[in-house]
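User: I'll paste a sequence; please echo it back and then give the predicted structure.

Assistant: Echoing your sequence first, then the prediction.
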Amino acid sequence: MIKIEAKTRIDKLRAVIEEHRYAYHVLDKETMSDAALDSLKHELYKLEQQFPDLITVDSPTQRIGGEPLSKFEKIEHKTRMLSMEDVFTLDEFKEWYIRAQKVSGAREIALFCMPKIDGLAVSLVYQDGVLEYAATRGNGSIGENVTENIKTIEAIPLRLHEQQLKSGIESRIEVRGEIYFPVDAFEKFNKQMEKEGKAIFANPRNTAAGSIRQLDPKITATRGLAFVAWELVSDLGQKTAEESFDLLKKLGFKTAPEARLCLLSVDVEKQWFSLQKKRSKMNFWIDGMVARVNDVSLFQKLGVVGKTPRGLVAWKFPAEEATTIVKKIEWFVGRTGALTPVALLEPTWIGGTTVQHATLHNMDEIDRLDVRVGDTVILFKAGDIIPKIKEVVKKLRPQGTHAVSLPTHCPVCGSSVCRTEGEVAIYCANPACNAQDLEAILHAARAFEIDGLGPAIIQTLHEHHIINRPSDLFLLKPDDLIGLEGFADLSSKKLVEQIQLRKHITLAKFLLGLGIRNVGEQTAIDLANYFVTLTKFLESTAESLKDVEGVGEIVAESVVEYVKQQHHKDLITAYLENGVIVESVKKQKTSPLFEGKTFVLTGTLLTMGRDEAKEKIRALGGKASGSVSAKTDYVIAGEEAGSKLDEARKLGVLILSEKEFTAMILE
């Protein structure tokens, strides 16, 4: 940016900042969040540092004195790894605190508070002082054995301090804590990925979790992960959570930083605000503060309600906002050929991650926001939701901007795009588009439930022309993979074995894997149950599809259009020629308790996976839906049930516990 451009930008920034300052401090009216306003101030500060002769005594920056294995085996937890209740406001925290007072009978409850580091929770078990195994949380009762990967993290002691072992403590010690990707290590890692021409990662938490679940520990070792301990499960004589932290340090663990004992509830509130102010300077991503009853005996007395202990709460920070500038708007092609606009942004830090992209969903959203290249926008992020553009700060819009135009040609293959009447999305008209093939392969791999076959591997195979369409997966041989990055003799054989084990597939999952536009999981099941065999499905007509329950005119048109295209006929033929066996539907006896009823699952089930639960519902004649509506008959609430449970309560939908749901199945 040259000096004259900087001066124009600085003048506009100062005017907008002053406008919002006046509204807030004089008119008691908040017109922009503190986070977004701080982001604008930071941009102003950086520009003034770049051009110091443009600094004026009345600049907003002058108010302050400077810028402040093939598979992981399962492990059963001896003690369940419970979840935490979330609260989002001071009132909600006070309600939790009052409940704890009533149940315990205590007038004041001392709370031990620590930052809620957003990473991967793990359990470490030591036998006679030596690390025996490490396991992920999993469903709380059963996790995955990730011992070999854990050993690559230097912050985790492989042997506890000898002097502690001599003090007569028990031979089996369990410690729980959080694996996380330090901010500086994460940024360094992404720079290296970018330098190597590889895709960078979106946020530290997901990357940390993915790093621990690498089958090759050598990959995990390169990531620079860290660990902090936050719970000593074993009884070593500690009377309080504060004492537990002291013991953890003596045993050789780094504990969650910025932790402190708060004797009064008002002190907890102060600590929460203090952590919120410090979070941007911390070398880890936090999304709130954990408050735990300090007294161990009182904590145990309070007990557990459903998924959470009464003596523990996670007080979440509010959603974050930041400002940045739109550099470019690009269109990406998905597996169905739909074009999705994505805003490329000036990198900005929000919610614990550097953000450079934001989806714009479709042309209607672009028009609603009136977003343009060069605009200053406010990004919004709540929890782990992908950042999105909240609004455009139009007073900072540079001169000469133009409204975004709808593309007329596919950005990948150059074919014309089309828009179906009544639909928002636009599509590439070429069914053989290269981008569609890549997304279709990934979609098929998920439908066939092929372990170990993720986006990076598929992209590598596609770029080397080893697979060009989904059916090519079943022609893979170990020799095709050896020599590619990340593949040795053993890993190549194991991936091919995994693929071959998935050659048998139900008709419903096969139809889902074809990626027919507007055909999701439930619609694929409805189609499979009606047509029973793949042959009969391929003979379907617009007339016959009208008789399928749950299939309307739009879906019927999509199916007819799909099956008539030679490109798709060839794909299905190739699947069959390559050894895929599509199983016909076997009619099962339904249950009157399930027949015609719609179920929605939320949270984690302990006795079965969600996919298994859905299969049982469908086998007994019910429907498994992904969203709650007035037409929903039952909501099954497992552990960590989310917003769907709240929606069910609002609508008066009958809520079933996992135990009640299991009883219905057995009737």
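The mean pLDDT is 84. The chain has five domains: 3-63, 79-316, 320-418, 434-583, 598-666.
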